[in-house]
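Entry for nicotinamide-adenine-dinucleotide complex. Fields follow.
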Amino acid sequence: MEVIYFMMHAKSNNKILITGGYGYIGSHTIVALHTVGYEVIVVDNLSNSTKKIGKNLEIICKKTHKLYEINILNFDELLNCFIKEKPAAVIHFAGLKAVEESVKNPLLYYQNNIQGTINLLDIMGKVDCNNIIFSSSATVYGNPSEMPINEKHILNAINPYGSTKIFCEKIIDDWVKVNKKRSSTILRYFNPIGAHESYLIGDNPNSVPNNLMPYIVSVANGTSEKVSIFGDDYPTKDGTGIRDYIHVMDLAEAHVLAILNDQRGRSRVYNLGTGKGISVLELIKTFEIENKVKVKYTVSSRREGDAAEVYADVKLVKNQLNWSANRTLKEMCKSAWSFGKNL
Ligand code: NAD
Ligand code: UD1
């Protein structure tokens, strides 16, 4: 991190605008950016977060980060924010992310995620802000045909949420091509879990969790009754689904490297995962052992659209950004529970 700090100080404007900065991944990335001395401006409409995150970030960083409570769909308010703040770069987390909801209400997703991204890029162009880091997802690979998945794998969304990520990636790519000063880094996250070591921030969705880890936490703390394991008849080591779980702080640190290693005129795409596949049962068992808590579960039928196994080829990001995930599954489980037990 010291090397990073000195590299960072070679750059003049160190202000980064974070859309969706009070969300799960955004808040952890703010801590990582703060650690190396960046100034952070947050834009968030608090649709899936609360002002309390700001207070907790203040405790962790011993510093206040300015919040603009703005919906990125509101062009004029967002433009005014950019004119006032003149950020050097943007990390774009703001988006809706619930797959099932996107199937029921696709237009909500197309409008929020795609129109929101178009507004952002349009405004960045107007104020000469030329570098964007975008939160994409392994969901863009659909049901993958080969494992591990590398960045050249065909893109094939199987739900509207996934389609919004593919469209946004393409729109960003086209935006970069217009002007040699522009650059983008598309980060395709696999399965981020865990929490910052302060346990003041973590995954705490405003409604019932859809993803596995927050659901395990909600069972362990008594909010939910039991985990439904979606199928134990997959062709995997124990029959349950395999995913690439990655500690959210490892993920957050990759964003810092993406900003530091920005290359004008280039669009880059990286998978962010550990490269290791973990089954649903392995995750539940590790969580139980590490935290000495019982997690009740039952096996139900497969969830529509789920692939048997999904894990990343992470060679490209290692070679080009010198980044790899190094926190363990045990650390992910411990921190998720330390954050979630009192929710
Ligand atoms: P999150 O819901 O915790 O955070 C998103 C934040 O964006 C929230 O604070 C929300 O209030 C804000 N937001 C949403 N729409 C907005 C709008 N129109 N204007 C302003 N603010 C808005 O989600 P997260 O888990 O932190 O995910 C961040 C990004 O990463 C999302 O784009 C998501 O699709 C992507 N992603 C997440 C995961 C995951 O497992 N968490 C995996 C792959 C990709
Ligand atoms: C899901 C989304 C994906 C999104 C990602 C991160 C689907 C089909 N995919 O991926 O688009 O980018 O979240 O937000 O929803 N599981 C259970 N019981 C549960 C929950 C999950 O057994 O209650 C299993 C799943 O079948 C899967 C694994 O746990 O094998 C992980 O599921 P989840 O956390 O929802 O992530 P993904 O399915 O990888």
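NOTE: The chain has a mean pLDDT of 95.
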